[in-house]
Amino acid sequence: MVGFGAVGQGSLPLILRHIDLRPQQITIVTANDFGKDIAAEYGIKFRVEPLTPTNYISILESELGAGDFLVNVSFDVSSIAVVEWCQQHGVLYIDACLEPWQGGHTDRSIPASRRSNYAHRETALGLRSKYPGGPTGVLMHGANPGLVSHLVKQALLNLAGELGMDAAAPPNREGWARLAAELRIKVIHVSERDHQTSRVHKRNGEFVNTWSSEAFCGESLQPAELGWGTHERNWPQDAREYGFGCGAAIYLDRPGVATKVRSWAPVEGPFHGWLISHGEAISIPDYLTLRENGKPVYRPTCHYAYHPCDDAVLSLHEFAGNGWRFPPQQRLLREEIDAGFDELGVLLMGHKRGAYWFGSQLGIEETRKLCPHNNATSMQVNAPFTAAIIWALRNPRAGIVEPDELDFQAILELCTPYLGKLVGTYTDWTPLVGRDGLYPDDIDASDPWQFRNFRVT
Q1: Which of 176, 289, 310, 360 has an alpha carbon within 20 to 30 A of 149's alpha carbon?
Q2: For the chain, give me the number of helices (H) and strands (E)?
Q3: How do beta strands 269-274 and 223-227 pair?
């Protein structure tokens, strides 16, 4: 296990619970002492040695051989470099997101298009042709990216059943794209509102979050990225195309942490979130692209809309006000959380019934009964993360895959017991609700899915 933050600490007890392993078979290699006491609790070897471009090969060679499994839960370690090493040496692999080496998110010598999740994904998937039929390497499989791809598929089946259509799971990628097109899904939000609160409030000069603060800040500085639907007829003012790859997404010439979006969740209702760059905003619309004669004729728009816990919101404001400089202190909210829950789901819009939210509502009290060393947010990550590890062990020669290509029913069956309430809710909300009134806005409200002048903010 490379890294041992919120994902590593919270997934370790699940791995030991669901996989036949002895603690002596696990080694943690990480950058600092954070979580050392938890590793000792389970009798796990704990090696403090950060992976760098100059030492990662020697460290991996000292710890891993053919048939072993590298669980990558680090940041500032190149996912591309590590997954390629695993392909070369017959080692299974999983990560929860695609990371560059330290500084890769903010290196101004690298064009914004190349600092993007789109670029990282294209590079990772490009390894498939180089290592065909290699050991299973699961990319980007936590809550999101990861779980949400499976929630989208289940939500499509739920909608099809409600609308009297064939609700059987399609046998292949084209079938899923055709189903989404027939349902007239135009927009998919990965919609998350973290309601967890702590009795210890954020202090000045401190970044507080329910998962890794440093990883959050890193991804928030990537360009705002969103899958771009074939129904879109207008162009955001600062939108850019990448000029390479699958063409399923665009990016805005500004960071995700500076981009607000409107979304909706069942308990919160309408909310403003941040358009944080995530792999699912590219993989989901790419997977659901329907082509005729090689040209896309259907693809939904897709992006992440994230409202973190209230202390993390304050932390983001301070982070932005300080010119994107990370504060001197950080704190992971876990034991001091005194109330709240995280609602994470997918909001499918544009179909006959308006909008449909399907996802997990998990409270902190239930989380603590389910598994130690977790809060509600990390539990929603670590359950599907562990489920994907189990899937990889059952399918050890699948090569490099991403969440949309896994068996969604198998993953949901494994992780649902840890997700609290799985809720499906319809709403007539659209992003245009509340846009008229105080100030003029150049939007044709007669059709909420046809924008004359599309604005993200």
Answers
A1: 310
A2: 13, 22
A3: unpaired
Taking the C-alpha atoms of residue 271 and residue 191, their distance in angstroms, rounded to an integer, is: 10
Q: How many domains does the chain have?
A: 2
Mean pLDDT of the chain: 95
- What CATH number is associated with residue 246? 3.30.360.30
- For residue 252, give the DSSP letter: E
E strand residue ranges, 73-177: 92-95, 137-138
Q: Residue 434 carries which DSSP code? A: T
* DSSP 8-state assignment for residue 314: H
Are the C-beta atoms of 301 and 451 separated by less than 8 Å? no
- Report which residue type is found at 192: E
Selected residue with higher pLDDT from 350 and 453: 350
**pLDDT at residue 398 tops 50:** yes
Is-contact 424 155, C-beta < 8 A?
A: yes
> 132 with 256, same domain?
no
Structural contact between residues 127 and 84, judged by C-beta atoms closer than 8 angstroms: yes
pLDDT digits (tens, 9 = 90+) for 273-324: 999 999 999 999 999 999 999 999 999 999 999 999 999 999 999 999 999 9
Q: Which domain holds residue 166?
A: 147-376+416-427
Is beta strand 27-30 parallel, antiparallel or unpaired with respect to 421-427? unpaired
